[in-house]
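Recall from the previous chapter that SMILES is a line notation for molecules. Here it describes NAP.
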Amino acid sequence: MEIRGTTKLTGLFGYPVSHSLSPVFQNAAFEHLGIDCVYIPLEVKPENLEIAVEAIRVFNFVGVNVTIPHKRSIVNFMDEIDEEVEILGVVNTVCNKNGKLKGYITDGKGFVKSLKEEGKFTVKDKVAFILGAGGSAYAISGALVREKIGKIYIINRTYENGIKLKEHLKEKMKFTEVEVIPFEKRNERDYWKEADLIINTTSVGMKEGDVSLIEEKNLAYASFIYDIVYNRKTELIKSAEKLGIPHLDGISMLIYQGAISFEIWTGRKAPVDVMRRRLYQFLTGEGYNKKYGD
Ligand SMILES: NC(=O)c1ccc[n+]([C@@H]2O[C@H](COP(=O)([O-])OP(=O)(O)OC[C@H]3O[C@@H](n4cnc5c(N)ncnc54)[C@H](OP(=O)(O)O)[C@@H]3O)[C@@H](O)[C@H]2O)c1
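With both inputs in hand, we obtain:
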């Protein structure tokens, strides 16, 4: 990639940002399509967010991604927001059209797209078990409802947060086929007989030594398991492999949510295979084909 006088800018606002994988696959996509644009990590302290948003206009950025801790606070600085941002109150993608900034959230759409395209799993009328009731659980459950999921069970450590998500789905999305299973009852077997899709949206699995929230015997009923944690192979994913259940990890969602951001900025179809291959090369240092057999 050659940076020239004409090169346009995109990047990631976050604090910290040094761990981010997005520059790897976004720049691979620009390079592959010959788009004269670069994606850079931009460390923005919370107190500098407003001035950083102004810099999007000043430097005529095509757009930016937004991560922790700015996803909620940046909404206040947008000229326009997408319909889904109105419901969720968070932004992970900003698009700059002649100085007008529009905020989008691509997490839920990216999740569902990865499930369809990479997982070959159809959501309609299925029963999903969602572990967690944090930010990503809101985005993912909303996207599942849009895809006409049949029923959602929520399991969350803090029961009240599970109930809040249930109420959110009822009020904002008019979805009533939703139940909260108390955390301490999560391994009671009867529930799991209904499971088609199990999704871990908690941060459990990120750390070495984290054990899976669900006993392995209860996973066997599922036809698909998705763990959105992406920094390591979790015990949940290891169990899915052992049981021979089709599964995806958080790398897939990461790439697809980034691919949607790319499409918003460029109007071009994102080269998802190129983005994925470059990221796996980066992560393994060995090459995608060798390590992952795709
Ligand atoms: N692949 C991707 O593209 C992608 C995108 C977004 C996020 N993620 C990953 O998703 C995970 C969650 O992110 P988030 O933004 O949704 O976080 P969040 O809003 O902070 O929510 C965290 C959730 O995890 C639960 N939790 C935390 N520690 C737990 C524990 N020890 N035992 C049981 N439950 C626990 C919390 O339960 P309480 O309500 O009880 O606190 C809450 O439901 C992170 O690993 C993040 O990296 C991946």
